[in-house]
């Protein structure tokens, strides 16, 4: 009997993974697969399979449905594995927060209407169009820090006067506006680091925006993100970056800026609107948004090699230093 027990122990594969900074150790039989790992995480951590993302060096980010559900655990058991995902309780809390945020916005809008109704007639047609030509669902990524803040950022974009006006003009209805996970859309090689700032799937079925900095410790400039959104809305009509696309893109930018009463609808000279930073490689077709997963996947999904958090933070610090140097040089120049 002692020999049989030793043989059994030798057949076990030990796997270590980290979830929210806490290490977890699991033991599996030698023929166990990635699907068995997903089931164990459901049982042990109460994270639904659709919410799970395993970040494994050289393999990238693996999530259900797995491209290879029979991938043996022993093939990556010796690697550093990071698990991302929200529990059922956390996902429900995000849904409740989204409902509460929407209700608060509606209450605030109702109060504003009540204050000005004595001075202004009620524009029922405009209200109906704004309810129709808008973003139907807003969704932050629940497994990233402070999803409530991302939800508020998405709500601000939805309520932006310029965005609302342009979507009415072009009759754009987008079922889903969500945030992008920076680490999944950041690629680094010997030529430098490239970042995808926005994605539009199936001409407006879903739009993803890079809201956060690379290190997740802050949010990008609002007007730069809004300009990216203008770019992605243009992909509702044109998939490729041809002349027609750029004409429509600049038209939407002008409409948004012109209807932004906070900026008085003004621009300086003939300068472009926050241009030069949008990068999305064009609109793309196919794929399915995974409920609770916080991302869009497709058969031709681009799986870039993940950067470590320390690498991302170092590059973010380098970018901030460059920006500060450029800012200091700009302070010494005179206005044109």
From TrEMBL:
GO molecular function: proteasome binding
Domain WLM: 126-322
InterPro entries named among the record's database cross-references: WLM_dom
Source organism superkingdom: Eukaryota
Region (Disordered): 290-336
Listed Basic and acidic residues bias regions: 317-326
Entry-linked Pfam families: WLM
Polar residues: compositionally biased ranges: 327-336
Listed name of the protein: Zinc metallo protein-like proteinase
Organism: Calycina marina
């Amino acid at each position: 009997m002692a020999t049989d027990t030793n043989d059994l122990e030798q057949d076990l594969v030990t796997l270590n993974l980290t979830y929210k900074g806490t290490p977890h150790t699991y033991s599996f039989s030698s023929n166990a697969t990635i699907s068995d790992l997903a089931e164990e995480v459901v049982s042990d951590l109460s994270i639904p399979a659709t919410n799970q993302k395993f970040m494994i060096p050289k393999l990238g980010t693996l999530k259900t449905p797995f491209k290879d559900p029979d991938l043996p655990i022993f093939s990556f058991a010796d690697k550093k594995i990071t698990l991302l995902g929200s529990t059922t309780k956390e996902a429900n809390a995000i849904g409740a927060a989204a409902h509460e945020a929407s209700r608060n916005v509606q209450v605030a809008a109702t109060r504003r209407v009540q204050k000005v109704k004595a001075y202004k007639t009620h524009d029922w047609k405009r209200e109906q169009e704004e309810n129709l030509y808008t973003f139907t669902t807003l969704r932050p990524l629940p497994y990233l820090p402070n999803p409530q803040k991302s939800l508020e950022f998405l709500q601000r974009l939805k309520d932006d006067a310029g965005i609302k006006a342009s979507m009415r003009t072009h009759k754009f209805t987008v079922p889903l506006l969500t945030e992008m996970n920076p680490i999944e859309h950041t690629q680094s090689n010997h030529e430098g680091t490239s970042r995808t700032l926005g994605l539009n799937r199936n001409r407006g079925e879903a739009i993803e925006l890079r809201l956060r900095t690379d290190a997740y410790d802050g949010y990008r400039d609002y007007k730069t993100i809004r300009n990216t959104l203008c770019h992605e809305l243009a992909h509702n009509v044109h998939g490729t970056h041809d002349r027609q696309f750029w004409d429509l893109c600049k038209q939407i930018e002008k409409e948004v800026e012109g209807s932004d009463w906070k900026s008085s609808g003004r621009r300086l000279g003939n300068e472009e609107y926050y241009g030069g930073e949008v990068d999305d490689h064009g609109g793309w077709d196919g794929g399915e948004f995974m409920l609770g997963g916080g991302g869009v996947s497709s058969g031709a999904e681009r799986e870039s090699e993940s950067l470590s958090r320390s690498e991302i933070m170092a590059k973010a610090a380098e970018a901030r230093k460059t920006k500060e140097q450029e800012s200091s040089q700009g302070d010494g120049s005179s206005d044109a």
